[in-house]
Amino acid sequence: MITESVELQRAAQLGIRVNDDDLDNALNGIAQRNGMPIAGLQAAVAQRGESWDQYREEIRKQIVLEELKKREVYERVDITDRDIDDYLKQYDGSAAGDTTEYHVGQILIGVPENASPDQVSAAKTRAEAALAALKAGESFEKVSAERSDAPNAVQGGDLGWRDPSRIPSLFMAPIQALKPGEISGLIRSPNGFHILKLLGERAEQAKQASLTEYDAEHVLIQVNGQRNAAAAKALAEKLRQEVVSGKASFASIAAKYSDDKGSAVNGGQLGWVKPADMVPEFASMLTQTPVGTISPVFETQFGFHFLEVLKTRQVQVSTDALRAQARQAIGQRRADEDLVTYIRRLRAEAYIDNRLTGQINDADQTPQ
Is 147 domain-assigned? Predict the structure, then answer.
């Protein structure tokens, strides 16, 4: 409650407002996503024992808080192509969607682990001699076979065709600066001194990735002013047991108790979701839960959940769409991490009137 109050005050300072027209559009969107008219959404809210006015103001508040986080945190996250490449390895083992592949050769003059300055100097002298031989016209394959310490030296140091996800980041800039047939200068790494040759480059064929989507429903029980973390977890366990035992349906429990208001009005249904779009704890449980079973209670930054996977399906995603989704997912995860720091800073800057004691304390001193 303190955190939310501090965030709302900061939003007001920034002039973040949600007028009635924007709120109505958001409510219509919630109704459409749940496959019902706005009147049906109103009826579902009433069944939860909540007034329509209360629900409207809660949604207005959520929109304000999301806009605050977007301005102050999400839009400041920096995501590189390398970040996306690494992320996409979990789908097909490569950086799907890269537009260029590189055919690279390498000569390595190794430096022993914990090498002395004299050993490093000697290795550098050998590397400079190899580079001089190349510049004098000796073939890369010959110099590699005679001088390189790389495992594939006798094969001319040929590393084959590689997309950027399979090339060390230390090498990417030198490779991209070369034209086919050109040789780099010395590149120092923990393993020694490298000389690279760009043997060729080509446009990579567009690829598609097959991803698993999950049709799922969940119940969320949050910590709030009326219940602490232990009480929230206990309630989630109790509600889960009611569903598992058959005393109540998943939909009825979600509609009555779930604090995820967007899905609660539709019996907790999330529709088709991808693990990459969820926070890590939710994604992990989603992929581990067999179809038709109720997961254990688990915790995320939002509270305590349990879920059911109704169906799964395989979908083909184009590389452009996949990279866009990866960028969004990476941004969300990093922003969630940065958000913790941001909220701590807001609380540290806030002064709170503790009515229990009559003292005025900063947020870090306020009892929870």
Answer: yes
